[in-house]
């Protein structure tokens, strides 16, 4: 499909983006077929180039959890890049801040796969960062990214097909979040996360060659780490990250326009969101679509022993991170283990005099109540994700 634009009486033909979809039980074949449908790896990687592959290794878990990118997918991509005579193929990421890249690469099996395929692991959190800028950003005049971007010719983003309780989905646009330093990630997880993700994508867009979404295993429900895995044996790819994210979102049973960062990306010129303007090749979308369980940031009513007094608080910040802390208890069947749990969250919360059980005050907006219980400071208050550890220590004392 093509559309034409007349500019000063000169007709410019603009090709619509293409998204390929393949389903195969063998990850290597899935990758090969998906990229072949787009014209082959030579469309994206050229002789003597240095290429970075960016998987999603948010935490140190194996790929069958649905959380982290499949090492076999990365291995297949490394081989394809070398088939295209790339000079060097790097694989890099940095995880959620309590964890370390090296640990995550090793436990996930990524390091072994990369080494065996002849690639080189880059542990972002052990290296240095540089500042890059774009004149298209709105909130981030600059962003810090790994220093290797100075010498890279291009990179391929390789996210997992999964849900995320702060952004509904975590796909190729969200995957770039792993490029920024751990200390900078803290500033993203608020209501402005959506625009900041788009700014980051603008900043690195000129290096992006391809987005390949790994759906060999997927994750539904309480992503990005506490959901339910699904084995789908899928790969989706496109040179347009907005297009492939929009298709993947639809495959998951959601609407692209309800995903704020995808909608912003389309509005701000990063790619195409409208499925009627996207070329589909490979497996028909309707043949592989299903309804994923929707992630939630709700904490009110989550369990009979959880009491919440909320004022004005943002969903991707205090609510989301408190939900992660509670989800970790639920996942281990420990939600009732520590008795009554009371949370004060947000600005101007109406709080009764008599509070029951263990009391937690969440985030800077609720700081006026800090004397009423354990205070998790910050905007957002990341440390509440490890609520379980806090409860365990309190029980021992």
Architecture overview:
27% of the residues lie in helices and 26% in strands. It has 397 residues and is α/β, with parallel strands linked by helices. It has 2 domains: 2-288, Rossmann fold (3-Layer(aba) Sandwich), CATH 3.40.50.11440; 306-396, Rossmann fold (3-Layer(aba) Sandwich), CATH 3.40.50. The strands form 4 sheets. Strands 3, 4, 5, 6, 9, 10, 11, 12, 13 and 14 form a 10-stranded mixed sheet that branches. Strands 15-16-17-18 form a 4-stranded parallel sheet, with helices on one face. Helix 2 (71-83) packs parallel to helix 4 (110-117).
Structural class of the helix and strand makeup?
alpha/beta
Query: Which consecutive residue ranges, at least 5 long each, have pLDDT under 50?
Result: 1-14
CATH topology of the largest domain: the name is Rossmann fold
The CATH class of the largest domain turns out to be Alpha Beta
| Morphology call | globular
Using brief descriptors, characterize the structure shown:
single chain, alpha/beta, Rossmann fold, 12 helices, 27% helix
SSE layout:
Blueprint: E1 2-7, E2 10-15, E3 18-23, H1 27-36, E4 50-55, H2 71-83, E5 88-93, H3 101-108, H4 110-117, E6 120-123, E7 129-133, E8 142-146, E9 154-158, E10 160-164, E11 168-170, H5 172-175, H6 182-185, H7 193-204, E12 208-220, E13 228-238, H8 241-251, H9 260-267, E14 279-282, H10 285-288, E15 306-310, H11 315-331, E16 341-345, E17 358-362, E18 374-376, H12 387-396
Parallel strand pairs: 3-14, 4-5, 4-9, 5-6, 9-12, 10-12, 15-16, 16-17, 17-18
Antiparallel strand pairs: 1-2, 3-13, 7-8, 10-11, 12-13
Helix pairs in contact: 1-2, 2-4, 7-9
């Amino acid at each position: 499909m093509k559309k034409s634009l007349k500019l000063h009486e000169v007709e410019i033909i603009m090709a619509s983006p293409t998204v390929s979809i393949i389903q195969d039980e063998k990850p290597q074949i899935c990758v090969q077929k998906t990229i072949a449908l787009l014209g082959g790896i030579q469309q994206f990687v050229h002789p003597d180039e240095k290429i970075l592959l960016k998987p999603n290794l948010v935490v140190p878990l194996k790929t069958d959890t649905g959380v982290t990118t499949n090492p076999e997918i990365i291995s297949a991509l490394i081989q394809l890049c070398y088939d295209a005579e790339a000079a060097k193929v790097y694989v890099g990421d940095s995880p959620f801040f309590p964890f370390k890249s090296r640990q995550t690469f090793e436990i996930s099996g990524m390091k072994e796969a990369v080494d065996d395929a002849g690639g080189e692991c880059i542990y972002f959190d052990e290296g240095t960062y540089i500042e890059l800028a774009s004149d298209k950003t709105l909130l981030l005049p600059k962003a810090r990214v790994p220093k290797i971007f100075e010498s890279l010719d291009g990179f391929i983003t390789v996210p997992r097909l999964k849900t995320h309780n702060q952004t509904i989905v975590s796909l190729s646009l969200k995957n770039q979040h792993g490029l920024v330093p751990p200390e900078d990630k803290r500033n993203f997880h608020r209501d402005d996360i959506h625009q900041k993700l788009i700014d980051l994508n603008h900043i690195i867009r000129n290096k992006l060659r391809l987005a390949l979404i790994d759906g060999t295993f997927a994750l539904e429900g309480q992503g990005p780490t506490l959901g339910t895995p699904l084995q789908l044996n899928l790969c989706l790819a496109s040179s347009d990250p907005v297009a492939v994210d929009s298709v993947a979102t639809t495959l998951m049973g959601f609407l692209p326009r309800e995903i704020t960062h995808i909608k912003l990306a389309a509005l701000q010129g990063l790619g195409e969101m409208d499925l009627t303007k996207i070329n589909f090749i490979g497996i028909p979308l309707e043949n592989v679509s299903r309804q994923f369980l929707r992630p939630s940031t709700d904490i009110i009513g989550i369990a009979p022993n959880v009491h919440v007094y909320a004022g004005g608080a943002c969903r991707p910040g205090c609510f989301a991170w408190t939900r992660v802390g509670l989800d970790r208890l639920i996942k281990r069947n420990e939600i009732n283990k520590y008795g009554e749990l009371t949370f004060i969250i947000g600005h101007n919360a109406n709080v009764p005099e008599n509070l029951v059980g263990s009391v937690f005050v969440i985030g800077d907006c609720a700081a006026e109540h800090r004397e009423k219980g354990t205070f998790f400071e910050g905007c957002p208050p990341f440390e509440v994700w490890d609520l379980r550890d806090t409860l365990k220590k309190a029980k021992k004392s």
